[in-house]
């Protein structure tokens, strides 16, 4: 299914559809299910077709345009969170909504916001919601923008160039193309990017509770 999707994007929409998908996945709530990593890797594999669909430019121009789409997507998510944040703080608490969770998110971004914005680019789903939460908790815009741009450059460049050069190497070394194996590559990318997070969440070290607490029984 992923192969068909990517083939359709390349053949019918080319770079324009890819830019929209990257923009949507990095900033719009409904874009969390889109295959950003796999699409970027495929962009490197199909670099020649993408260039042909956009005035035969060099693939470095394609990388630059995708970086811009990623940056703008995050900025849109930040803007949305920034505008809706005050409404959430004033909202009446319900079973599903607790203001303390917003305060915890605020404290988390105060401490780890820079790394979160940067590393979220490499994590499916999280990359969609990280900029929105940053806007909600009022992360400084200049700080968010810097790490948004830095993360976008590293994420897009590593994925696209990884696909481009790996395709060339495999084709020259073994005589076959990766285009027919994008689904497997996508699974590998997802596992590599998400397993460390899942391991940290579920199998990471938990705080040790000291059970040898001495209680003073000589209460006067």
Strand content: under 5%
Distance between the termini: 74 Å
Shape: globular
Structural class of the helices, strands and pairings?
Answer: mainly alpha
Number of DSSP helical runs: 8
Q: What order do the SSEs take from the amino end to the carboxyl end, as H and E?
A: HHHHHHHH
> Mean of the pLDDT scores?
79
Name the helicity range. over 70%
Please tell me how large the radius of gyration is: 22 Å
Give the strand tally: 0
Question: How many separate structural domains?
Answer: 1
- Low-confidence regions: 207-217
Largest sheet: none
Structure notes:
With 220 residues, the chain is an all-alpha fold. The chain is 72% helix and 0% strand. It is globular. Mean pLDDT is 79; it is low at 207-217.
Quick structural summary:
This is DedA family protein. By secondary structure, the protein is an all-alpha fold.
């Amino acid at each position: 299914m992923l192969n068909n999707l990517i083939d359709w994007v390349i053949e019918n929409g080319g770079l324009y559809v890819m830019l929209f998908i990257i923009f949507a996945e990095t900033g719009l709530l409904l874009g969390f299910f889109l295959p950003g990593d796999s699409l970027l890797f495929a962009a490197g594999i199909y670099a020649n077709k993408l260039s042909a669909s956009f005035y035969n430019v060099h693939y470095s121009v394609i990388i630059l345009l995708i970086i811009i789409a990623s940056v703008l997507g995050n900025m849109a998510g930040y803007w949305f969170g920034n505008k809706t944040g005050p409404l959430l703080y004033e909202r009446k608490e319900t079973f599903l909504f607790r203001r303390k969770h917003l305060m915890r998110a605020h404290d988390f971004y105060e401490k780890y916001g820079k790394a979160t914005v940067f590393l979220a680019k490499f994590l499916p789903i999280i990359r969609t919601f990280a900029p929105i939460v940053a806007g909600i908790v009022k992360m400084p815009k200049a700080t968010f923008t810097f790490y948004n741009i830095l993360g976008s450059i590293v994420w897009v460049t590593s994925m696209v160039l990884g696909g481009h050069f790996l395709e060339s190497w495999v084709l020259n070394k073994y005589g076959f193309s990766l285009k027919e194996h994008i689904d497997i590559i996508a699974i590998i990318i997802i596992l590599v990017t998400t397993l460390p997070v899942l391991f940290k969440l579920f199998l990471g070290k938990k705080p040790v509770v000291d059970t040898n607490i001495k209680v003073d029984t000589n209460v006067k």
